[in-house]
Amino acid sequence: MITMESLASIPKDILPEISETLEAGDIAQLVEWLALEDDNARYKALLLLLSRSSYADDVYPFWDVFVAKLKSDNSYQRSIGLMLIADNAKWDSAGKMEAALEDYLALLSDAKPITVRGCIQGLGKIALHKPDLGPKIAERLVAFDLAGQKETMRKSILLDIVNTLMVIRANTASDTIEAFIQDALSGNVLDKKAKRQIEKQMGSR
Predict the structure, then answer these.
(1) For the chain, what is the mean pLDDT?
(2) Domain boundaries along the sequence of the chain
(3) What dotted CATH number matches 63-203?
(4) What's the whole-model pTM score?
(5) Which residues lie closer than 8 Å to 33 by C-beta, 6 or more apart?
């Protein structure tokens, strides 16, 4: 059984290995520890749960806990909810992602740029495993108010949006997506390196 003391002593580089040894009681405990104010313990609990979610479905039963975090007053908790939902969408056979999507998309308007980026990146994972949600996600992303973001964050956010749209584009033909990506390529927000990367991805479709 994992303890707070053992969690604190786990080096970050072996967290994926440790995640393979977790028992049901450990997972429930780690989910509870996500609410801790201790940054180190909370972060390690999150990393263990994310690692576990990549290959096993036993974190998914706590889905409703993660959805509730999307409306937390604490930005860290909102980000935690975003990440764990995105990483567990692959295990969602009950259609819970569809019900949670509006709450998830609401964080595109979050006050914290890092939370906005986490939302967009998470939407890419969701679209990968839930391609039927791709059109709705794309609709919201192409309408995103990039000008409303800090100038220093616009490049990163636009690249996140394009990367997520590229995931959707692989499954859904859309003139709107094509037009948005072309606008990004012809604009001056992205640098030449980012544009070349996108053009290479588009050519490999």
Answers:
(1) 95
(2) 1-58, 63-203
(3) 1.25.10.10
(4) 0.94
(5) 4, 7, 41, 42, 45
